[in-house]
Specification:
The complex is a heterodimer. Helix content of chain A is about 15%, strand content about 40%. In chain A, the strands form eight sheets. Chain A has an eight-stranded mixed beta sheet with strand order 6-5-9-3-2-11-14-13, with no helix packed on it. Chain A has an eight-stranded mixed beta sheet with strand order 26-27-25-24-30-34-33-32. In chain A, strands 1, 10, 12, 15 and 16 form a five-stranded antiparallel beta sheet that branches. In chain A, helix 5 runs antiparallel to helix 7 and helix 6 crosses helix 7. The longest helix of chain A has 15 residues. Chain A is globular, with a radius of gyration of 31 Å. Chain A starts with a strand and ends with a strand. In chain A, about 40% of the residues are buried. By secondary structure, chain B is of the alpha+beta class. Helices cover about 20% and strands about 40% of the residues of chain B. In chain B, the strands form ten sheets. Chain B has an eight-stranded mixed beta sheet with strand order 5-4-9-2-1-11-14-13. In chain B, helix 6 crosses helix 8 and helix 7 packs across helix 8. The N and C termini of chain B lie far apart (about 105 Å). Classes of the chains: A mainly beta, B alpha+beta. Chains A and B meet through strand 7, strand 8, helix 9 and helix 10 of A and strand 6, helix 9, strand 30 and helix 10 of B.
């Protein structure tokens, strides 16, 4: 990642203006274009793309706005590329800061038998879909499309949200030959600029543009920033990766400070201390955390069985979890105020977790807010504060020198474990009275599953015994979710039993289903139809019937981005099987003990036979949540070895006494 | 007279006049109703009052007790609306487990969002949504809403119960019209007769069901319409977006659709007519002309769904499709029909209920809301040919599993006709595979494989078509999800003739496919086509329904390395059941091991108590699909 800071004073003064390419003026090269060396598999290619964003004054209302213009020319190479001709432009339409679109023009250019024909988009075929209270879509599809068509469209977008200057995505799902963005920023405003992704800018340029804007009679200079990227390969998503925005090449702007028309300098996001102040002061953030008063009357009842701080914290956590349900929206700011959330029992995730912090503080437990960005939202910029990167808030509670991260919006998550969506790099802790600081967001529990089968093989070919499963961390979370998706434990077990034709569950017991801090324990008395007839000699027995790995999750030959599994994990299987009579071990699956580099992971399996008892053990461990792309092939190989060994059998030969 | 009318309505609604006092404590529920249920519909009264053709009022009063978290969706309310469907009112209360009202809501508590489906660019429909948040279970929600339809061509069907895991204590449907109104009504799976009340002003009919216990979803079950209680209503005289019409049967409805919604949408420009005439000039017979036109449409157009105008029932103008080169199913069929008309080839605009589950248009009961897709039929002499116009790759004259083997409504100038699309049989739905594989001493496999797919399996490779090679190779790895598999070459060809076949031929390698232990090598013989087990179902209630049959034949020849000795070869097996058959054979010929597998699944309906046999059959197939050959290595012999 590279960072560019504006140094407005050093710009050379020129009067050059943004240079858009001419609408519909296609070259012979555009018309004849068939394939790009960038990606010979492309279905469509952006031939040229141009955007400008400028801060302007709305004369009618006297407010500043961002004037964004977009213009693109795309070559459709084949039928699969037709998708690129279905266009959706989202507009934020929340409250009075409504974005609008104008001057939309779109044309399909066809070239047949040496002749160019143009088909313009009929204005009546532009649809406006009010998606919900926050977003409206402008949608259209290009007319008269055929393989080889060039489509071209442009529009102007009015946005009153000057704090978020338009992000420009250089990379998309189709390759681009030329992408150019010009940002015209008045000298009053100072933005932090960040270039993300692996692709490099082909060129960039900064110029001073004199008197580009006039506010209250005063002329203001602008800096004109030009960014050009050429020959951009398409962005292709892979499995086990976090947000594409972490990797897509794009340029982001965040307002850092501005000079008021009277001459004073107003910081926006320059330093964390400013952000801290701003957040703590914000009615929807710090203002909510400070509402300890709401809990004064509630606390005695909540804490009636709790004595020490840890148990108090757990009681409060349980109370908030049970009393406010998440309404499907996330955020760092309270949507309804925590008071209203408590009354109506519903709120966004910020309502819930800010209420949790306030309640903990009310009980005199040290709790701080941690703002973070969820996995799908991408990583945050840790070099300087970009507040719009953050989209989630959780609590960090500090008790007797130990810290616990809490999210009360997920009912089935135990105390101290964050939901997987929050495990994403670092979060910023925002204490009420101290400076903010970074904190690693990691899963506090290893995702662990242990299977224990103690059983006996009968002369009827059936294995009868007890299978006990322990699940911890996200394994327990996922299991609890599955169990609770049935109307009762009995129904869950019935479905489970029905899904395994060769295994019968005779009796069951599930412990700690509601006791989230303890491992989830399932105890099943099982009958497994292992052999139709055991009078064969030798007897082939495959011990890998519990949680068998049937496919390699890392099946590809190459990897570009890191493999992000979220948390460490461990899976153990132990089988102890009493055999009917005397057998010897004629052959067995290879004894394996293989590991990834630097203790990154391990697979072990052993088999032994002693006193007619067959003992089999298997262990699979991943000791890191994230593996680099260079480790992909090792992961693939590890799984491959597992799959190979799982195909082999234990061979038992009868011993004549 | 007016007094009488009010009297009747008051009678119908009296139960709800005392809405706020009515309590529904959850402990009143019988254990039969609570069994397996996540929610119980305590009371639901659906009243449709057809006051006039353009004024149909639907009033729904519903009380639902939610027993646990999984029942929450039953307490959510979705009200869809558009230009012709107006939400007049909605309100309700939430009641705790003890029957005490805890909060109220009205239409202003609903959120509003668009209801454009993923497949559409745009639709007129929007939806209002309410989701209660209640912390403890059980709880009850009681609500009432009223919707006005400005048409009576499509009156929603009434279902006594919709969803699995929900019990119904009491649900009724009342249809009110004027005594002189002619209305065709059909109740399906309803025992007894509706209760009828008639006076000079009104006629009402009421269907009531009580104490339906929750059902659990069962695999391989027939279409719910075959056994769920529901009522369809079709007024003879109707009003629709300003159109007025009349029908009693498919013949009249098909005629009206053609004359009013299609006929005047088919004008093409003289230039286009000339173009299509030139296109087929010199072609001697109608079928080949039609094929040429079909290919022309496939090349020129693409599928884009825009559902606007009169309830999404009328196709875009043919001339507009001609200009824009896109359209939805109606538009593309109408366009193709118009082009064919220009060269004097008659064709039929056919409404079908598309989907992999075969669903007929109800032969005995004509109504407007039974289809969801349009296809085109060419009534060539002794050679009726069917065209799917939304797919740019579909072979001429081929309907895949999306629309095969079901009744459709052909809309023509002379009247509607019920026709049946051709069936794809178990024998036709054939996948045949042959592979020549060489196993080396390291357990690696190299070889070639050819697979051909016909009938409903023709589309098995649909997502590969037109993809670049790199993408195809990636897709292959999910089709054949085998560890370490790699493909050196891959070729897909599609024979689009009268019996379409997709052929795949490839060269592949699988490193370490046959693993070895100290002294054995294990080879799982069925590498590519393993059947998965299906769940067992205790106390099966519904008949076993197999929607579509197919036949798979795999023949894999393994050439074995020199230094191995066969330790164990599984025996061949043959299983024959009513549901289908399975046979594998393993033969050793010199250094070759030939594995042959044939699996046949028959379509059909079987009694509920046969489900266990079916599950057993599939379970046996699944086990036999795992059989291994075991070899001793030279090392062990020494």
């Amino acid at each position: 990642m590279r960072n560019l800071f504006f140094l407005l004073l050093f710009f050379s003064s020129t009067t050059l203006f943004a240079q858009d390419f001419e609408y519909l003026k296609v070259s012979q090269a555009d018309l004849n274009f068939t394939k790009t060396a960038l990606d010979s598999n492309a279905n469509a290619v952006v031939l040229r793309e141009f955007g400008t964003a400028a801060v302007r004054l709305d004369d009618n209302y006297g407010n500043l706005f961002i004037d964004f213009e977009y213009h693109v020319r795309i070559k459709i190479l084949n039928k699969k590329g037709f998708e690129s001709a279905n266009i959706t432009i989202p507009l934020l339409t929340n409250g009075d800061k409504e974005e609008t679109i104008s001057e939309l023009k779109a044309t399909t250019i066809n070239y047949t038998n040496g002749e160019i024909s143009l088909t313009e988009l009929d204005k009546k075929k532009i649809f406006t879909e009010k998606r919900n209270k926050y977003v409206t879509f402008t949608k259209f599809t290009m007319p008269n499309l055929t393989e080889g068509s060039i489509i071209e469209y442009r529009y102007r977008l009015y946005s009153p949200r000057i704090f978020n200057f338009r992000t420009w995505e250089f990379q998309s799902n189709i390759p681009k030959l030329h992408s150019e963005y010009i940002a015209m920023i008045p000298a009053l405003y100072n933005y932090n600029v960040a270039l993300r992704g692996a692709q490099k800018l082909t060129s960039q340029n900064a110029e001073l543009n004199r008197e580009c804007l006039r506010i209250a009679g005063r002329a203001i200079d602008c800096s004109k920033m030009t960014y050009i990227m050429k020959d951009i390969p398409p962005f292709i998503e892979e499995d086990y990766m976090t947000a594409p925005s972490n990797f897509k090449s794009a340029i982001n702007f965040e307002l850092s400070d501005y000079i008021t028309p009277t001459g004073g300098k107003q910081g926006i996001t320059k330093e964390w201390k400013d952000v801290d102040y701003q957040l703590i002061d914000d009615k929807s953030f710090g203002g909510q955390i400070k509402r300890k008063d709401i809990f004064k009357t509630l606390l005695p009842d909540i804490l009636k069985n709790a004595t020490d701080p840890l148990n108090k914290a757990k009681a409060i956590y349980a109370y908030i979890k049970h009393n406010i349900k998440e309404n499907g929206f996330i955020g760092i700011y309270s949507e309804n105020t925590i008071k209203k959330a408590l009354e109506t029992h519903t709120g966004n995730t910020a309502d819930i977790n800010l209420a949790l912090i306030a309640a903990l503080n009310a009980a005199e437990i040290d709790a701080e807010a941690v703002i973070l960005s969820t996995r799908v939202n991408g990583l945050v910029n840790t070099l300087f504060p970009v507040i719009s990167d953050f989209n989630y808030v959780v609590a960090k509670v500090n008790i007797e020198g130990k810290s616990y991260l809490l999210d009360a919006s997920e009912p089935l998550i135990p105390f101290g474990l964050l939901p997987l969506r929050c495990i994403n790099g670092r979060g910023r802790v925002i204490p009420l009275k101290k400076p903010s600081y970074w904190y690693d967001l990691t899963a506090s529990q290893k995702e662990t599953t242990r299977y224990n089968l103690t059983a006996e093989l009968g002369k009827d070919g059936k294995i009868k015994g007890i299978l006990t499963t322990y699940s911890i961390g996200y394994a327990a979370f996922n299991k609890r979710k599955r169990i609770l998706a049935s109307n009762s434990i009995d129904e869950f077990v019935e479905k489970l039993d029905e899904s395994m034709p060769k295994i019968k569950i005779v009796k069951h017991e599930i412990n700690n289903l509601d006791s989230l801090e303890n491992p989830l324990i399932e105890i099943y008395n099982v009958e497994i139809l292992a052999f139709q007839d055991i009078n064969h000699d030798p007897l082939f027995f495959n011990p890998f019937f519990i949680d068998k790995t049937t496919r390699n999750p890392f099946n590809l030959n190459e990897r570009t981005y890191p493999v992000d599994l979220g948390s460490q994990s461990e899976q153990r299987v132990s089988i102890s099987l009493k055999l009917p009579g005397n057998y010897t071990l004629a052959d067995k699956p290879k004894e394996l003990n293989i590991g990834l580099a630097e203790g990154g992971g391990r697979f072990m399996c052993t088999t032994s036979l002693q006193d007619d008892v067959l003992v089999f053990n298997q262990l699979l461990q991943f000791n890191k949540p994230i593996y680099g792309p260079e480790e992909y092939l090792s992961l693939k190989e590890l799984y491959s070895r597992i799959i190979q060994v799982q195909k082999t059998d234990i061979i038992l030969k009868k011993q004549s006494k | 007279m007016i007094i009488k009318q009010i009297g009747l309505i008051a009678l119908l609604f009296c139960a709800f006049n005392s809405f706020s006092q009515v309590e529904y404590p959850a402990d009143q529920l019988s254990s039969e109703l609570k069994n397996r249920a996540n929610a119980v519909i305590r009371k639901m009264e659906t009243t449709v009052d057809m006051r006039a053709g353009d004024n149909v009022i639907m009033n729904i009063k519903k009380v639902v007790t939610v027993l646990n978290k999984n029942g929450d969706p039953q307490a959510e309310i979705y009200l869809s609306y558009n230009k012709n469907t107006v939400i007049k009112s909605a309100k309700g209360i939430i009641i705790d487990a003890f029957g005490k009202a805890t909060s109220k809501f009205t239409l202003s508590n609903f959120t509003d969002h668009s209801a454009v489906s993923d497949i559409s660019l745009f639709e007129d429909d929007r939806v209002k949504h309410f989701e209660p948040t209640v912390l403890s279970y059980p709880y009850t929600i009681a609500y009432e809403y009223e919707i006005r339809f400005k048409q009576n061509l499509m009156i929603p069907d009434w279902y006594a119960s919709h969803t699995a895991d929900v019990a119904v204590e009491n649900s009724s449907y009342t249809f009110i019209c004027k005594p002189e109104d002619k209305v065709r009504i059909k109740a399906f799976n309803y025992k007894g007769e509706p209760e009828v009340v008639i006076n000079e002003k009104l006629k009402s009919q009421t269907w009531t069901v009580k104490n339906l216990t929750a059902f659990k979803p069962e695999p391989y079950a027939p279409d719910p319409e075959n056994y769920r209680c529901h009522v369809k209503i079709a007024p003879e005289e109707f009003n629709y977006y300003g159109y007025k019409g009349k029908y009693q049967n498919w013949e009249e409805l098909g005629k009206w659709i053609y004359n009013e919604l299609i006929k005047n949408r088919q004008t093409l420009s003289p230039a286009t007519i000339e173009e299509v005439k030139a296109l087929v000039a010199g072609i001697p017979n109608d079928k080949d002309k039609a094929r040429k036109v079909y290919e022309y449409v496939q090349k020129k157009t693409r599928y884009i769904s825009v559902q606007v105008g009169i309830g999404g029932q009328q196709p875009m103008l043919a001339s507009e499709v001609d200009q824009l080169s896109y359209g939805d199913c109606k538009a593309l069929v109408n366009y193709t029909q118009s082009l064919l008309k220009a060269i004097n080839i008659p064709s039929l605009y056919c409404i079908v209920n598309a989907g992999s589950l075969k669903k007929d248009m109800e032969t005995e009961f004509a109504s407007m809301n039974q289809g969801n897709h349009i296809i085109l039929c060419l009534p060539l002499k002794n050679d009726t040919t069917w065209l799917e116009c939304t797919d740019q790759e579909s072979p001429f004259g081929f309907l895949g599993s999306f629309t095969d083997d079901r009744t459709v409504l052909a809309c023509t100038e002379d009247g509607g006709k019920i026709l049946r699309t051709p069936a794809l049989s178990t024998q036709m739905n054939l996948q045949e595979r042959k592979a020549e594989l060489v196993l080396d001493a390291e357990g690696n496999i190299n070889g070639t494989m050819e697979t051909s797919c016909g009938g409903s399996q023709y589309d098995n490779y649909a997502q590969f078509v037109n993809q670049p090679m790199k993408e195809q190779l990636k897709l292959l790895k999910t089709t054949y999800d085998i560890d370490n598999i790699d493909f050196d070459t891959f070729k897909l060809t599609q024979d689009k003739g009268s019996k379409p076949v997709t052929k795949e031929s490839l060269q592949l390698s699988i490193q370490k496919y046959a693993p070895r232990t100290n002294n054995h090598i294990y080879l799982v013989l069925n590498a590519f086509n393993k059947k998965r087990t299906i769940p067992e179902v205790r106390n099966r209630t519904l008949p076993v329904f197999i929607n579509r049959g197919y036949t798979d034949i795999d023949e894999l020849t393994y050439t074995l390395p020199n230094d191995v000795v066969i330790d164990f070869i599984p025996q061949g097996t043959e299983i024959k059941t009513a549901f289908g058959s399975y046979a594998i054979s393993i033969r050793k010929v010199d250094k070759k091991l030939i594995y042959r597998r044939k699996f046949v699944l028959n379509d059909g309906t079987y009694p509920a108590d046969k489900y266990a046999d079916f599950a057993d059959f599939i379970s046996s197939v699944s086990s036999y699909d795992q059989v291994k050959a075991i070899f001793k290595t030279e090392l062990a012999k020494n």
